[in-house]
Write a structure and sequence with these properties.
By secondary structure, the protein is α/β, with parallel strands linked by helices. It folds into two domains: 177 residues, Thiamin diphosphate (ThDP)-binding fold, Pyr/PP domains (Rossmann fold, 3-Layer(aba) Sandwich), CATH 3.40.50.970; 105 residues, 3-Layer(aba) Sandwich (Rossmann fold).
């Protein structure tokens, strides 16, 4: 058995994620360049089998919907102003159950804000981006290894559950180069896209126990396919107000909520006997890890939880938080958006928050809050 030697290169997460998406089977990138996601645009032009430059963000997601309906796995990358323009079509793709991946690179807002300053300010928008209280699967990498593995999981989840998936990251991760051993990344297999078995007759939105309809692309030579973004029944036709149409729409939520354990990812460093917990996600995770190391060196018992599946919220995240006496949420926004997502806006002596706007959080700021 041979041990693979290390291969350290200067690299950023944009390139790592692009490569992972391609190796996972994503086969077309449709983009409109917007800082700080523009490295995805340039890297994808080199790596994807097919690349299209859209005239605007609305066209980008419309084109992606067409590609997805034709059996491709399309990818784009954008920031908040672009996502705002994509929202209507994103809802359409969700309703039509079209697999695709969107990389959202957060930057300082509101509005166009500061394009070259990172942030973690888009989470509350994403919580309600699909009208009606539905959640998209949202993954947030905390380091380069996550950028690789979660990109693969995004493609797998998009295909398995027939849904758009968002990879939520930030400017510092995707634009900052650092020395990294690329041979430490595990191998990736291309996602299997052949249609799964179904109970005949074929109907485009008929489901079995897994609540996910069998996918056949437009133009296939076996079955008639319909994609419908209006409220529809199993046959893909509009039956306004019918119980069947309502059940079919509710299923869109249930197929993800009921099976979230199949795509739940997190990192817990528990520290036996600790009663205090630090919770973080995305780019602030490194500061949280460093703060924990420093606090432990000073003799404090403390645990750290890094959330990687952000939405839908896995039950295990609630269970972990409930098992500690004091919880400190660390995130780069003013209001504690992840804390609000989990426990609401209510102020409690159990919860502390470390929030910063316009610059990254330092480990010393986390240590001061915990102490």
């Amino acid at each position: 058995m041979t041990t693979q030697t290390s291969k350290k290169v200067l690299i950023d997460a944009s390139r790592i994620m692009t490569e992972a998406l391609v190796q996972s089977g994503a086969d077309v990138f449709v983009g409109y360049p917007i800082t700080p996601s523009n490295l995805f645009y340039s890297y994808s032009k080199e790596r994807f089998p097919e690349f299209l430059a859209g005239p605007d963000e609305i066209s980008v997601l419309q084109w992606m919907a067409g590609y997805a309906a034709a059996g491709k796995i399309p990818v784009t990358a954008t920031s908040f102003p672009g996502l705002a323009l994509m929202t209507e079509t994103l809802n359409m793709a969700f309703m039509m159950e079209l697999p695709m991946v969107l990389v959202l690179v957060q930057r300082l807002g509101p509005s166009t804000g500061s394009a070259t300053t990172g942030a973690q300010g888009d989470l509350k928008f994403l919580e309600g981006v699909i009208s009606g209280g539905f959640s998209l699967p949202i993954f947030s990498p905390s380091n380069f290894n996550d950028a690789w593995t979660l990109s693969n999981e995004a493609v797998k989840t998009a295909v398995k559950f027939r849904t758009p998936v968002i990879l939520l990251t930030s400017k510092e991760m995707v634009m900052t180069q650092k020395s990294f051993d690329i041979n430490s990344l595990e191998s990736i297999k291309k996602v299997d896209r052949k249609p799964k078995a179904f109970e005949p007759p074929y109907q485009p939105y008929k489901v079995g126990e897994d609540k996910v309809p069998t996918f056949y692309p437009l133009g296939n030579d076996k079955y008639q396919v319909r994609f419908n973004s209006s409220t529809h029944a199993e046959d893909g036709l509009i039956h306004k107000g019918s119980p069947e149409s309502m059940r079919n729409t509710i299923r869109l939520r249930e197929k993800l909520i009921e099976r979230v354990d199949e795509f739940s990812f997190y990192e817990l460093d528990a520290d036996e006997g600790a009663k205090d917990l630090i919770v973080s996600w995305g780019i602030t995770a490194d500061a949280a890890r460093d703060a924990v190391a420093n606090l432990r060196a000073s003799g404090k018992k403390i645990a750290v939880l890094i959330a990687k599946t952000i939405l839908p919220v896995p039950q295990v995240i609630y269970d972990i938080i409930d098992s500690y006496d004091m919880v400190t949420f660390v995130e780069e926004n003013l209001t504690g958006q992840y804390k609000q997502l989990l426990v609401g806006k209510r102020i409690s002596s159990k919860y502390k928050m470390v929030n910063k706007f316009g610059s990254m959080i330092r480990p010393s700021e986390i240590e001061a809050a915990v102490n």
